[in-house]
Write a structure and sequence with these properties.
Helices cover 69% and strands 2% of the residues. Strands 1-3-2 form a 3-stranded antiparallel beta sheet.
């Protein structure tokens, strides 16, 4: 898939390299330690988890790169590592289905589910993006495989590795895996107290201790170096504010990230001036103030994020780059309202948040002078014209439906159709799925977070097909037995 996509040269999206992650990796390569997430010489940071940044740093070092000047082998090595992780993850997913008793001839359904989710719906992420989504997706599968292996009643080395890596790569995944282990132990407690310990908490305890040690250790490191006591990464307060202040309906979009400190000079300047601790605390306090003052708006945002995660995902571009002169007074107004920014190209502008409803557009225009509002209406007209040129297929958003609504429907169908013993096993994956996406729905969910759960979506769809095949085989067997009796 990657060769097919990049045979004429690497897609430009590769150059993102995880944004802040690569800036931190460069700082590590330069001997400045885990620091400087925005390339501004700001010192120690806890902005991002260390796992993926260390992975980038090691790959860069092993391929002969020096800081930001990576060698020619860096991208092929990173793409190769991504392919190995996704391939190994596919094998782990298949082994989970077999352990659940849903393997056998279910490999056809598994291959179809993998092709639908990974090779088609996640085509862009798998072949042209180098953020940490693929790494988290691999760790999600690794964690679930480790949990399933506890059925043997013995400590799992794989689970210990998975918990350690999860604690250092995704605090949400680490917490979700702890939740799955706790839920599994409670289910076993209904069988007997002995089962609760011997098959539940006892075998899981070494892995839990490894994960907690990594989690607490890095959190304390962040507290000592940045002054923020936060779970592994410190930017949670900013993300909560960003979802409320820099979105139309609570779901971050392309326009939202045009105002991120990584690319927006003014926001980065505030980070540099205030320092990470004050920057995060100020935005966090502002976020909670907005929630207290208008809880109804926050609940509406939660609803939109839940729809985004579980019904219909949004992945449309809501910004527009144009050339030409804009009167300085109108430009200042539009920039003050965060509806316009200067584009990187000289003489170009980018209009932001153009995909609003009529009500949202009326609110935006109402804050502007007549001249600035008229310029904004012209930008809306261009955006609407571009949207009108989309094909019917694109308007149906098939990929987005697969990665949200179809995945949710598959989990429900798998649990409803499966026999009780299968249902309890499938529910492990569902609890992990909800545990990973749930915190993002509460804080800031957008399309990139669906990449991390693509393995679980494959599992849900493959489980439905496998359950249907099992039921069909049983029905055929019963009919055959009745016929022979007659």
């Amino acid at each position: 898939m990657n060769v097919a996509r990049n045979h004429d040269g690497l897609h430009a999206r590769h150059l993102e390299l995880g944004g802040e992650y690569f800036s931190i990796a460069v700082a590590m390569a330069d001997g400045r330690g885990f620091s400087d997430p925005f390339g501004a010489g700001t010192g120690a940071t806890g902005w991002m988890p260390p796992g993926f940044a260390v992975l980038l740093w090691l790959t860069n070092a092993l391929t002969g790169g020096e800081g930001r000047d990576y060698a020619a082998g860096f991208f092929p090595a990173l793409i190769g590592l991504k392919c190995l992780c996704l391939g190994f993850g596919a094998g782990l997913l298949w082994s989970i289905l077999r352990d659940w008793g849903l393997g056998g001839r279910g490999w056809v359904g598994f291959a179809a589910a993998w092709g639908l989710v990974v090779a088609w719906a996640q085509w862009e992420h798998v072949t042209a993006m180098m953020h940490d989504g693929w790494w988290v997706a691999f760790l999600v599968v690794l964690c679930l495989r480790g949990v399933v292996s506890l059925r043997q009643g013995r400590p799992s080395f794989l689970l210990a590795v998975a918990m350690g890596l999860a604690a250092l790569s995704s605090p949400v995944l680490f917490a979700a895996t702890l939740g799955v282990l706790g839920w599994r132990s409670l289910i076993l407690a209904k069988v007997s107290r002995r089962a609760f310990w011997r098959m539940g908490m006892g075998p899981a305890l070494p892995a839990v201790l490894v994960g907690v040690a990594c989690f607490v250790g890095w959190s304390l490191r962040g507290w000592s170096s940045v002054g923020i006591l936060a779970p592994v990464k410190t930017n949670g307060g900013y993300e909560l504010w960003q979802a409320q202040e820099l979105t139309l309906r609570g779901v971050p979009t392309h326009s939202t990230f045009e105002l991120h400190p990584l690319v927006h000079q003014e926001a980065r300047a505030r980070y540099v001036e205030q320092g990470e601790r004050a920057f995060v605390q100020i935005h966090g306090q502002e976020a909670w103030r907005l929630i207290r003052e208008n809880p109804g708006r926050f609940l509406a945002q939660l609803r939109h994020r839940a729809v985004n995660a579980f019904v219909l995902m949004e992945r449309r571009r809501d910004s527009l780059q144009v050339g030409g002169a804009i009167p300085s007074a109108a430009a200042e107004e539009l920039m003050r309202e965060k509806l316009l920014i200067p584009a990187p190209d000289p003489g170009q502008w980018r209009f932001l948040f153009l995909a609003g409803t009529d009500k949202e557009r009326a609110r935006q225009a109402g804050n502007l002078s007549p001249e600035a509002a008229e310029i904004l209406r012209v930008a809306w007209a261009y955006h609407d014209e571009r949207e009108g040129q989309r094909s019917v297929w694109d308007l149906l958003n098939p990929r987005e439906v697969v990665l949200s609504g179809l995945a949710s429907l598959s989990w429900v169908a798998a649990c409803c159709l499966a026999a009780p013993r299968f249902r309890r096993r499938i529910a492990l994956g569902l609890v992990l799925y909800l545990g990973v996406l749930g915190p993002y729905v509460l804080v800031s969910h957008y399309y990139r977070y669906q990449e991390g759960v693509m393995g679980l979506q494959v599992l849900a769809m493959a489980a439905v097909l496998s359950v249907l095949m099992v039921r069909k085989r049983k029905a055929v067997s019963l009919v055959g037995g009745q016929a022979s009796t007659v």
